[in-house]
Every structure is written in structure tokens, then in C-alpha cells.
Design goal:
Length: 473
Amino acid sequence: MYRKIHRNSIQIVSKWFIPIFLLSLLLVSACGKEQGNPDTNQKTAIKVMYWDETSYFNSFGDLFAMKYPHIEVEVVSTWELQKGGDSKQALEKFIEREQPDVLMLDSRQFEQLSPSGKLLELEPLIQRDQYDVDSIFPNLVELLKEKGEGRLYGLTPVFQGSVLYYNADLFTRYGVEFPHDGMTWQEVIDTARRFPVEGDENTRIYGFGDQYPLSWESLILTMNSTYGLKLQNEQTGKLSINTPAWKNIYQLALKGWESGAIYTERDSLSLGDGSMEDYYRRQLFLMGRIAMVVGDQSLLSRLDAARQNVRDIDVFEVGMVAGPVDPAAPEYTVDISLRGIYSIRADSPRVDAAWEWIKFINGEDYARIRSRTINNGLLSRMDYSKEFHGHSLEKFYMLKPKLGDGIIMDDAPPGVANELFKLSEREMMLVLDKKKTLDEALQTIESEGQAALEQAKSEQVRAAEEENDKKLD
């Protein structure tokens, strides 16, 4: 409930206050930049892929309309793709039917379409208009080029990243060495175990945790966000969990879980009175009771909000380091999300207008506006994303981003992944109770999970056949 209220308040500010406050800036910029395009002042209309019309205008539609009143935008909602039909075939059919000029793609979709010839290369347009890309996160641009086999087919104004936050006061109090950039999960767990585990639920501290108590599933997902391991073998499509790589993650998770140093569901606080203050008090890192958490940039906003809403809050020094990292690739992070990569359809008849749209949302004016809030992502334009309320954001840009599908299961029927995690939790509890070895548990997860996957696929095929028979009748 509280998160919904907070999000709505952000939308109200972004939709009304920011456009009015910065209208003059945008109008002046429109007169002074990006001239020379032959279609700049011609009335035209483009189709833009986006979640839905309301969220489009809340995000940047109103601002774009102020600066480019001659370009009418029709929003092509991606709702049907969000409902589960987001396979490559479904995406291509959607694009063929709707004919959007601007495509909004996540990293997986971008990786699928970049080498297909369906996206327009942007470099010639960048050179033609002398569009500044130098201040855009260089490693991110290189990543997008890599997925395009050396060519740039899209740009993204924001991205989601994470760092390891720590409570410097707790480290000093208990004489534990501060975290450093590039820590591995082995080092994180070992460091967490150096903090005391004594005390009751209202006073004790934890070496590691999250915004809320970690379930077994969320702990595994948090750790795997560093490695980007898949649940399926890419060649065979079969589940692939009983492997040395997955075993390493499970071993580290078990080590932390058994130690009592991790804030888990078994330590969950009793329900409070439902007030805003209680909402923040249940987030123990904000209250100074967790030494380390892995989090994105929005944690800084929550920290500021907690300090404004909680009486007598324990104010502590916050530190950030880049990581955790995979020791096999310590310079990279796969814990990155690119949900909005914007590209131009290769055969669009309105390339110039579509390019004006992409230039705007990836440009300096929009970055200047977006720099006032970081809840929805980090800016790709680094000049406007250096700090937030006194906290430097440099650690978010330290590691080289590398895309990875991670836990995603290709073409798996809905619900299979959840069933797999229930199976994983059941087996790990048996390991914790010393009733099974880890090797035995992983073998069971893989074999029973594969059987559940095959059954779900068979039921999905049968349901589709029955639906086709109904249509024929």
C-alpha cells in the first residue's frame, strides 16, 4: 500500500510540477539545438511502442509534446506482450501488425532483433546531426554495439544497476574491515558472519539482508544476479541445476542461512500498526540494523524518506562499493536491467521524426529533468547522474555491464519457475535438517523439475489444441 502511495506521488510530481517548471527550458532548447533536419518543422505522426498511453505521458509524453508540437505520437501498447506472449515470434508478429516507428525493447528482445535486419542503424543519424553520445555511459554504448555486431541499433536513457551498500557505523562499532569494490559472494558471506547474532527480534543486527526478510528463493535470486546462471541448458532446453556453478551458489547460500547472519523470513518482525513509520521500521537496513545489502539506486530515496518519517531514527553513514562480482569476470556485472532500449524500425517511413523522439528522451534536456529523481533508474547520460542528495553514484558506473538472461526459462509455461523454487526450498530445508546431502537435493530438483516442465508443456499444447477445435466448431 505504501509503495503505491509513494509511486503515485512521484507520478503527480513528474506530470505536473516538472513540465511547468521546465517548460521555458525546453522551448528555448528547441530553438537552439538539433537544427538541420529537413523534417524538423513538418507536421507528422509516429507510432511509439510503450507500456500504455497513461504511463507514456507520465514518463515523457507531455514533455516531448511541449518541445515538438508538430510531431503527433500514437502509443502502441505492449500489453499483449506483457501478458505472456513475449516470445520472439510473438514480438515479430506484433511489430509486423502494428508497424511502430519507435520500438521499445528489453535487453532480450534487443539482442534477438539487432542482427535480424529489422532495426535501423543509428550511427549515420548521429553523425548527420552531430548528436552528442560522448557523455552517455561508454560501457553501456559499447554493450549495445556488441549486441548489434559492432553497429548501434538503439539507445536507452536509463538503466537499473546495483551496488553493495553498507552501514559504516556498524563496521566501525564491531571492528570489521569495510567492504571493498569487487567483493565476491564468498567474501560477503564471510564478512556478514563476523557480526554478532545475539539479541531479540527488536534489537539484534544482521550481517546481510534485503529490504524485507529474505526467503530461500529471494536469497538464491539475489546471489545469482551476480552470476547470471540459467535454469536451462541453451542447447537441449532441459533443466540444468545439478552443476558445479549452481552448487557453488547453493553452498554459499546455505553457509549464510545456517550462520544466522542473514535476515531471513524466520526472523520476520511481528506485524505493526500499518502506519508509514511502521512501514520504514520494518526495513532494517534503513533502521541501522543490517550491515550490508545489495540494492539499486532507489534505496537512497527510501533512506531519505525514512529519515523524514521515523521519529528518533538512528542516522548512520552509508557506504557503497561496486559488486558483488563473479570471480571469473571481476570487471563485469550482469546485475543490470535495460527495459527500455529504443530503436527505429528499419522500414519506417518516418525515420526523421522517430529519430527526433529518440534524441529527445536520450538527450541532455530530458536527462536534466530526470536527474531530480532516481527511483525509476540511473541516467545513461553520466553528466547528470553524479550524485543524489550528497551520495555519489560513481559506484553504479564502475563495472562493465554485460547482459544475461539469468533465471529466465525459454518458452516455459507460466508457473513452472515458481514450482521449481518451491521444490528448491523443500529440498534445501531437508539439507539444513541433515536429511539429505546437497548433491542429492540438486539431483532431485533437476529431475522432478524437468518432469514438471514437460508436464506443463504437454498441458499447454493440449489446451491450445482444444482452443483450436472450439474455433473450428
